[in-house]
């Protein structure tokens, strides 16, 4: 009777151990997905940074072009200057929007990293607790085995 009960307890503990192992695998998959998400955010941030640099170069080129036109033809300066200023305003608006978007992506990335770190720490805590529980169960199984051996 005691042997059956001990055997049932051991089987139950083994099931719990398997369940905990399965949870650990799931947690590792969640971490991998989060890391991939962060990686994708970083790629998008780099792409937006390159785009912003390109727009800044375009803006600088437009400004230089406008200055040369003013020096070459004062008579036509008023109409060309208005066009250049309009173009500059559009580029500055676009640059401003891109900078704002870049800042938002940066904040989003930082938020994602903070959430990831928080979740990662939570998972680590859970994993540590799970491992502690596993050790406790193993110790209990050892105790049961030694008690069983001592009884017989």
TrEMBL record:
Q: Offer a single GO CC term for the protein.
A: centriole
* Keywords linked to the UniProt accession: Cell projection, Cilium, Coiled coil, Cytoplasm, Cytoskeleton, Developmental protein, Differentiation, Flagellum, Microtubule, Spermatogenesis
Its domain of life reads Eukaryota
Q: Where is the composition biased (Basic and acidic residues)?
A: 74-84, 107-117
Bias (Polar residues) ranges: 93-105
Q: Where in the cell is it found?
A: Cell projection, Cilium, Flagellum; Cytoplasm, Cytoskeleton, Microtubule organizing center, Centrosome, Centriole; Cytoplasm, Cytoskeleton, Spindle pole
**Location of the region described as Disordered in the Swiss-Prot/TrEMBL record:** 74-117
Gene Ontology terms describing biological process? cell differentiation; regulation of cilium assembly; spermatogenesis
Which family does the record claim for this protein?
Belongs to the ODF2 family.
Mind telling me what this protein is named?
Answer: Outer dense fiber protein 2
Q: What is the lineage of its organism?
A: Eukaryota, Metazoa, Chordata, Craniata, Vertebrata
Q: Which gene encodes it?
A: Odf2
């Amino acid at each position: 009777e005691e042997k059956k009960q001990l055997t049932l307890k051991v089987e139950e503990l083994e099931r719990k151990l398997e369940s905990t192992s399965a949870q650990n695998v799931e947690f590792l998959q969640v971490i991998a997905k989060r890391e991939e998400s962060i990686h994708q955010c970083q790629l998008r941030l780099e792409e937006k940074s390159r785009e912003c640099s390109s727009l800044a170069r375009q803006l600088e080129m437009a400004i230089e072009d406008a200055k040369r036109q003013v020096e070459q033809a004062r008579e036509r300066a008023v109409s060309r200057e208005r066009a250049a200023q309009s173009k500059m305003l559009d580029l500055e608006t676009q640059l401003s929007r891109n900078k704002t978007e870049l800042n938002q992506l940066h904040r989003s990335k930082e938020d994602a990293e903070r959430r990831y770190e928080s979740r990662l720490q939570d998972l680590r805590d859970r994993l540590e607790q799970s491992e502690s529980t596993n050790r406790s169960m193993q110790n209990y199984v050892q105790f049961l085995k030694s008690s069983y051996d001592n009884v017989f």
